[in-house]
Automatic annotation (TrEMBL):
This is Alpha-ketoacid dehydrogenase subunit beta. Residues 4-179 form the Transketolase-like pyrimidine-binding domain. One of its GO terms (molecular function) is oxidoreductase activity. Transmembrane segments: none annotated. Its cofactor is thiamine diphosphate. SMART domains: Transket_pyr (SM00861). It holds the Pfam family Transket_pyr. Keywords: Oxidoreductase, Thiamine pyrophosphate. It comes from the Bacteria. The keyword Magnesium does not apply.
Amino acid sequence: MTTLTIGKAINAGLRRAMENDPKVLVMGEDVGKLGGVFRVTDQLYKDFGADRVIDTPLAESGIIGTAIGLALRGYRPVCEIQFDGFFFPATNQTFTQLAKLRRRSEGALSIPVVVRIPYGGGIGAVEHHSESPEAYFAHTAGLRVVTVANAVDAYWMIQQAIVSDDPVVFFEPKRRYYDKADIDTEAGLGSAAPMGAARVARPGTDITLLAYGPMVKTALQAAEADPDHDIEVIDLRSLAPVDYDTVEESVRRTGRLVVTHEAPVSHGVGAEIAARITESCFYHLEAPVIRVGAFDTPYPQSRLEEHYLPDLDRVLDGVDRAFAF
């Protein structure tokens, strides 16, 4: 077993994928000699060279557009968008081309591009560095959208994303980059849980608490901090597609569901899950599905982010509201 942080686990997963397939490329702003602003691509440039670890211009549209062309020629590009809020210049290439080419060609073309996006707040950053834009991607048909909450998933899921023939948007919770876990790096990729499967992070019987990415740790803390309720915590892992089978099985047992994420509540991933679970589990629900997220405002200055982001108390309040019915 090897102890790695989430950031180092992604690095190790990238390295393993590049060793296994010479067509895997890493590209983005400062990913080469610098090793990325979070050092996630550290040492890859030294070991694989400038032809496979490519420092690009500061042009996100160019990064994704070039990756699409490379994928059409048989490569498997892994693109890094330096921060979540920097993605938006690449929306045209991502939403109108990357997501649609396989369908448009009736399956004749594969576009195996991975787009890595560090996302979320909690690091005291300046404007445009702490966004949670995952709902945009999950709403776009043709994209697989995943996020990790621990180093084990980080190591395996980045490799699963790279071997996928579909484009994958890979969200990395930047405030959790330094969380550690033990990983069996000698195991084969087939030993890992499927990329699209949710994970029961903590079994429980009284209520289901659903989270993903940076909020999974907070959800687990809430479960431990509540002495009155046996809380089941589910790590969603995949936002598109969603593993509704796992969520529905849990809700049918517990009768209550709270969904939490860092993104604003309105029109978020939690809203879609709440609607779907209300349809499929209506007669099992003892209370409405409760959503806990950030406020419906632009992300604030860093000195206010601790009040903006959902924390332990707000998650526990959501649990209490579910039991108030």
